[in-house]
């Protein structure tokens, strides 16, 4: 079989891999705090056999990281919403250990713990879950301090509950997990960073550019069609060659 088929089919497979990454970005355009995942191609020269010229190049698709630019800040006015202002992350507890997110759509679960919209406990600066008084009115400060006023309490009796664990590890040390959360490469917890600030009553939208993602999807689709056309042409040429040989025989 013509080796161009292997080269073209490999290229088509890599395009489909990249398309799946772009499609995932598009699916998360409305996901709070989502970080766009990068997908690139890398050329890999094919080692020629004896007597062949090094004319073929294969490709490999890879996802080297994520875009960490800030998404648009949207004001919600909800007391339990918060957005990171600038660089930084919220720390949450997962079954696999501590993880980090930019999604600040918080809620209170049945155990009166502050949790993410997916039910993961939000961590305090001392590394533990944050208890919220039942029917209490919660207020976030820009430094992550959480205060609450119980139902029917005097405003002078406001109590400090905890401080959000806000971290800012180097971006090159963060790895995206299958759950969409980020963790350090070694899985070790990061120490709180007092310079990280939040914007209470806001959420940060996804940083995916829908228009750019759509253009990338269209471009990939066209490249896939070109790879399929190469395969079709190679197959046609092989059939013609076989017919010529058959006639000559």
Q: What topology emerges from the helices and strands here?
A:
Elements: H1 4-27, E1 40-45, E2 57-62, E3 73-75, E4 82-85, E5 89-94, E6 97-101, E7 107-108, E8 114-115, E9 137-140, E10 145-149, E11 159-163, E12 166-167, E13 174-176, E14 182-184, E15 197-200, E16 202-204, H2 210-248
Antiparallel strand pairs: 1-2, 3-16, 4-15, 5-6, 5-12, 7-8, 9-10, 10-11, 13-14
Features:
249 residues; 25% strand; 2 domains; 2 helices; three-stranded antiparallel beta sheet; alpha+beta; 25% helix
What does this structure look like?
The chain is α+β, with helices and mostly antiparallel strands and 249 residues long. It has 2 domains: 4-67 and 208-248, no CATH class; 73-204, no CATH class. Helices cover 25% and strands 25% of the residues. It has helices at residues 4-27, 210-248; strands at 40-45, 57-62, 73-75, 82-85, 89-94, 97-101, 107-108, 114-115, 137-140, 145-149, 159-163, 166-167, 174-176, 182-184, 197-200, 202-204. The strands form 7 sheets. Strands 6-5-12 form a 3-stranded antiparallel β-sheet, with no helix packed on it. α1 runs antiparallel to α2 (210-248). It is elongated, with a radius of gyration of 26 Å. The relative contact order is 0.20. Residues 5-35 form the Flagellar basal body rod protein N-terminal domain. This is Flagellar basal-body rod protein FlgF. It is found in: Bacterial flagellum basal body. Pfam families: Flg_bb_rod, Flg_bbr_C, LlgE_F_G_D1.
């Amino acid at each position: 079989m013509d080796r161009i088929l292997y080269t073209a089919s490999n290229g088509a497979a890599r395009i489909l891999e990249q398309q799946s990454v772009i499609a995932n970005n598009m699916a998360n355009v409305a996901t709070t705090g989502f970080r766009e995942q990068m997908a690139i191609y890398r050329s890999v020269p094919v080692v020629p056999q004896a007597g062949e010229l090094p004319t073929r190049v294969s490709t490999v698709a890879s996802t080297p990281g994520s875009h960490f630019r800030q998404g648009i800040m949207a004001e919600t006015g909800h007391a339990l919403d918060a957005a990171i202002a600038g660089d930084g992350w919220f720390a949450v507890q997962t079954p696999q250990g501590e993880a980090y997110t930019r999604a600040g759509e918080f809620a209170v679960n049945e155990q009166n713990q502050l949790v993410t919209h997916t039910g993961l406990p939000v961590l305090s600066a001392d590394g533990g879950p944050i208890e919220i008084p039942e029917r209490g009115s919660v207020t976030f400060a820009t430094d992550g301090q959480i205060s609450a006023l119980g139902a029917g309490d005097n405003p002078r009796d406001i109590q400090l509950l905890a401080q959000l664990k806000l971290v800012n590890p180097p971006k090159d040390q963060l790895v995206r997990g299958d759950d969409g959360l980020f963790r350090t490469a070694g899985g070790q917890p990061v120490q709180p960073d007092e310079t990280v600030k939040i914007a209470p009553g806001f959420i940060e939208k996804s940083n995916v550019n829908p228009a750019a993602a759509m253009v990338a999807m269209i471009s990939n689709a066209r490249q896939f069609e070109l790879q399929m056309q190469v395969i079709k042409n190679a197959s046609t040429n092989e059939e013609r060659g076989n017919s010529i040989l058959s006639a000559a025989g």
